[in-house]
Each structure stands twice: as structure tokens, then as C-alpha cells.
Design a protein that fits this description.
Rossmann fold, four-stranded parallel β-sheet, single chain
């Protein structure tokens, strides 16, 4: 053994960087990491604090190009291969043109490649081959309508919608609450997928359970953001079966549980043994 005693270990393993700009109140860093492969590191930064509740006003404030560009520049020192703006409302509030302008602003600020959550959503729907989606949001009615307008502009039909009307502490919504709203939204006119909006809404463990129950792809804001960012790296999210990352759709819909009983109750807690 030489003087250092550790040279035989080699490494560390080379990492590929994904930069993430999150809104100042983002609390689900761990959820993003659960989708990250071992060879990928996430580098997160946040927009400056603003004493404003979750609303249309806040969405417009956090989508200002100057604010976003400053956040992107803080990430360039670690040279990520892609930068994701992980704020759904801040990216859809300006419509299709507004989302594209945000990506352009990120690129001008130094991002090698740029994605946003709503842009990733449309990319995911194209990948899944659907334009009919049920919608769950934690937002107020006005902010939810802004998302519906964005989807309509993109040619996506919202078959059913359920919103929670929250203006703060969205990350505290339990999985049971997410599942209840998902079932309500999915009662609409034959959705081909279900989207759970807001990157501050916990969804990681509830996705596979809802897909097993509803028998349609269930996609969430954080999931599509990570999927689109990792796609730029030529890789995909890890974790339990989920239709979008796996590329395999759920089984066709069925009207009832096969044994005729009730659907299993979804836990409010993260599942043991998950990455």
C-alpha cells in the first residue's frame, strides 16, 4: 500500500450534470433525485424569494427573463449538459410563445440545452401518442385555467379537471389527497393520460399505483421534467415501473378490480425500498 492508502479505489465515477432552476419555495429536491441514474448529478438553484402566494401574479414574476437568466448563470460554473426550469406555472403562464421565449433566455444565459416543465409535458404527450388528458392541479381556479389555455393552444383536450385551490405549502399534500383528486379528474370523457401538475406536488410513489388502478399513463410535473432533461443526455429516469420512462403503456382499462373488490388504498408515505 502506498502512502495515501486509497489510490486503489479509483474514481470517483464521472458524472453528467443536469442543472435545475427551481422556484424559491420548491421543497421536493429529493423527489427529483429519485429519478436520477447513478451517473447523473443534479445541480439545483432557486429563484429569489418573493413574498407572494402561489397565484397568477407569482407565476408571472418567476417567469421574468432577467430572474431566470441570473439563476441559469449560477449553474454554468459546473457545466451542466442541460438546464431544466422546474416550475410549471412559471412556464405555462405565457402560453406557447412564452415557454419558447423562456428556453431561449436560458440558452442566452449559458445553458447548453434548455427544457421547461410545460415543454416537457407536451413532449411527453407526443411520446405517449395522446392529445386527451385528465388534469390535476394544486392551484387556484384562475391558475388552473391558465394551464388549460396552454394545453388548448397546443391542441391538447382536457377531458376532466380537479384543482385543490392551494396558495402555499403544496409540498405537504399527502399521496392520498393526490390520488383522490386523480380519480375525480379521470372520471371525464375517456382520458388517454393523466397529468399531475406542479413541481411542488409529491407524486413519485403515487404514479405507479395510479397507473395500475386507472390503466392509463400517469405523468407528473417532476417526472416529465426529469424525463425530458435526461433524454437530452441520451438516458432515462430510474425507479419503479412508470409508463413514460419505461416506454411501456399500462394494461388496457378495466371497469373494476379483477376480484370485484375495492382498489388498494394508497399510502400517504413514500414506499419502502424505493430508490
Amino acid at each position: 500500500m502506498n502512502g495515501t492508502g486509497i489510490s486503489f479505489l479509483g474514481g470517483p465515477r464521472p458524472q453528467r450534470g443536469v442543472g435545475v432552476v427551481a422556484p424559491f419555495d420548491f421543497a421536493l429536491d429529493r423527489e427529483l433525485w429519485r429519478w436520477a441514474p447513478d451517473e447523473v448529478s443534479l445541480h439545483l438553484t432557486r429563484t429569489p424569494f418573493m413574498p407572494v402566494e402561489v397565484s397568477l401574479d407569482l407565476a408571472r414574476l418567476v417567469s421574468e427573463h432577467r430572474t431566470l437568466a441570473a439563476a441559469v448563470r449560477t449553474l454554468t460554473a459546473v457545466t451542466p449538459e442541460v438546464v431544466a426550469y422546474a416550475c410549471a406555472s412559471g412556464s405555462f403562464v405565457g402560453g406557447i410563445a412564452g415557454e419558447r421565449a423562456l428556453c431561449a433566455a436560458m440558452t442566452r444565459a449559458g445553458a447548453v440545452a434548455a427544457v421547461t416543465t410545460p415543454g416537457a409535458l407536451l413532449e411527453a404527450l407526443t411520446e405517449l401518442g395522446t392529445r386527451r388528458v385528465a388534469l390535476v392541479t394544486p392551484y387556484t381556479v384562475s391558475l388552473t385555467r391558465s394551464l388549460q389555455d396552454y394545453l388548448a393552444e397546443a391542441g391538447v383536450t382536457v377531458t376532466g379537471c380537479a384543482c385543490m385551490g392551494l396558495t402555499r405549502h403544496i409540498w405537504k399534500v399527502p399521496y392520498r389527497g393526490v390520488a383522490d383528486m386523480a380519480r375525480r379528474a379521470a372520471r371525464g370523457d375517456q382520458p388517454q393520460a393523466l397529468f399531475l401538475s406542479c413541481t411542488n406536488l409529491p407524486t413519485y410513489d403515487v404514479i405507479p399505483q395510479l397507473e395500475a388502478e386507472l390503466r392509463i399513463p400517469v405523468i407528473s410535473a417532476n417526472q416529465v421534467t426529469m424525463w425530458a432533461a435526461l433524454r437530452r443526455l441520451g438516458t432515462r429516469p430510474v425507479g419503479p415501473y412508470q409508463a413514460l420512462p419505461s416506454g411501456v403503456p399500462p394494461a388496457p382499462p378495466r371497469p373494476r378490480h379483477e376480484d370485484g373488490g375495492a382498489w388498494p388504498v394508497l399510502s400517504d408515505e413514500p414506499q419502502e425500498g424505493r430508490p
